[in-house]
Design goal:
alpha/beta, 17% strand, 192 residues, six-stranded parallel β-sheet, 7 helices, 6 strands
Length: 192
């Protein structure tokens, strides 16, 4: 069996934005496979339930229509240690790369059991416009045992938090927008 590099990208997907879409597209060009899932972040308040966010992310995955992109909702856990354990069980012979946006880099050393799981995986950080990656954040990750690669990707300045407060069709993937309307999510009223 050929050893593959598999990018693991969990996201709140609350809702998925053009930024999520751009990152997934670029990960597909860099890795053999990409697995994504919606998850609950214990440090965030979510605007929709996990099952609804998973449905929204599924619509984006289907829109991207790549045989190398998996919606791996079974990897979802509020705790990265558990997610990585599940991923290692699913793909025991492959190189797993845990992908996060630069907005989370400084938080990661404070995540549950970070010092244990950071040394067990390779991490890739996607710079996001508006969330600079600091030397201090990288140094803190290294001190915790992380092997970090900063991805050379361009992610548009779109944030789920902004879409929850004032949804804009141009910032949401085309397959996701109708679902936001259909389910009256984030204050959208389809009758207006």
């Amino acid at each position: 069996m050929v050893q593959q590099r598999i990018a693991l990208f969990g996201t709140s997907a609350d809702p998925p934005t053009r930024g999520h879409q751009a990152l997934l597209e670029q990960l597909l060009h860099r890795y053999d496979r990409v697995a994504t899932w919606a998850s609950d972040n214990p440090m965030k308040q979510h605007g929709a339930t996990l099952s609804v966010r998973a449905m929204l992310l599924k619509a984006l995955v289907e829109q991207l229509n790549s045989s190398n992109l998996d919606l791996a909702q079974d990897l979802s856990s509020p705790f990265t240690m558990e997610t990585l354990h599940r991923a290692h069980q699913r793909w025991p012979q492959h190189n797993l790369v845990f992908v996060v946006g630069s907005d989370l880099a400084a938080q990661i050393p404070h995540w549950k059991q970070a010092d244990q799981w950071l040394s067990q995986c390779h991490m890739a950080i996607a710079p996001r416009q508006g969330w600079p990656l600091t030397a201090m954040a990288l140094a803190d990750l290294s001190r915790c045992g992380a092997s970090v690669e900063v991805l050379d990707v361009e992610i548009p300045a779109s944030a789920s938090s902004e879409q929850r407060h004032a949804p804009q069709p141009e910032q949401v993937p085309s397959a996701v927008w109708p679902l936001l309307l259909e389910h009256n999510l984030y204050g959208l009223d389809p009758t207006l």
